[in-house]
Amino acid sequence: MKDKIVLVTGAALGIGKAAAQAFAGLGAKLALADIHEKEGKKVLAELQAEGAEAFFMQTDVADYEVVKAFVAKTVETFGGLDIALNNAGIGSELRRTADFQLEDWDRVIAVNQTGVFYCMKEELSYMQKARKGCIVNISSMAGLKAMPNQIAYTASKHAVIGMTKTAALEYARQGIRVNAVCPVFTSTPLVDKLISMGDNMEQKLLRSIPMGRFGQVADIVNAILWLCDDKSDFVTGQSLPIDGGQMC
Questions:
Q1: Which of 1, 110, 132, 134 could form a disulfide with 62 if both were Cys (CB 3.0 to 4.6 A apart)?
Q2: 151-166: per-residue pLDDT in tens?
Q3: Which of 12, 20, 2, 6 is nearest to 220 (CA)?
């Protein structure tokens, strides 16, 4: 990853933060985006203190003009774009479909689905000129199976897989690979919030994972790094479950 130019959305917390740290440790140049400015600047300061070349831009991926400006700044700052990790995502309150709030639907779809489209649209516009590049989208096990009481999240993560496969087919002959990872419940602020929503929720979630533990951010980051490595250069259009056996 030495001197590779890597873009990460949702870089302030959880998987995005851990991925940014891992890429930096391998010598990449980093463009970091997150809607949480304070936390994002803290991550940036930590990486720069360790010698990483990086910048942070507060970014709402649901705003196309902001996404466009962020990707353009990445290319202007570093001279190109090699790898993009489209990680930004949110959850919602737990409600059955008929009771799901319209505002929750609109926001989750805007961030998790439309936001990934906005990012890919801009990233691919630069990558196709260079005829090389790698994109990894963060989907979820909810992109491969049903998640009751989470209609918007499930729909958005299924959409991420569909968009991943479509873009992979469209750009394969231009040297651009597009893949997705599908984490099971992983120890992140998003899952912590989910656990807080119901009695005994933590144990309910754990029982659904055959290996008997939540995913750790390192489990997910290791898969991301492999998909971005030249050693996986014949892999595209895949949705990789990282699930502790849940899909067996």
A1: 110
A2: 999 999 999 999 999 9
A3: 20
- CA distances from residue 175 to 14, 31, 212, 226, 235 in whole angstroms, order as listed: 30, 22, 39, 17, 11
- The residue ranges of the chain whose pLDDT is under 70 are none
Q: What is the pLDDT of residues 12-54, one digit of tens each?
A: 999 999 999 999 999 999 999 999 999 999 999 999 999 999 9
Instruction: For strands 239-242 and 83-86, give the pairing.
Output: unpaired
Rg (CA), the chain: 17
Catalytic residue among 64, 118, 126, 153: 153
φ, ψ for residue 7 (rounded to 5)?
-105, 135
Q: Is 126 a catalytic residue?
A: no
Q: Do residues 55 and 77 lie in contact, with contact meaning Cβ atoms separated by under 8 Å?
A: yes
H or E stretch at 182: strand 176-183
Residues 6+ apart with CB under 8 A from 192: none
Domains of the chain: 5-240 (3.40.50.720)
Alpha-carbon gap, residue 15 to 72, rounded angstroms: 24
Cα Dmax for the chain: 52
Amino acid letter, 88? A
Question: Which residue bears the tokens 């507060």?
Answer: 58
What is the pLDDT, as a whole number, of residue 216? Answer: 86
Q: What is the pLDDT of residue 244?
A: 82
Q: Where does residue 156 rank: exposed (0-12), middle (13-18), buried (19+ CB within 10 A)?
A: buried
Beta-sheet strands, E only, within the chain: 5-9, 29-34, 54-58, 83-86, 133-138, 176-183, 239-242
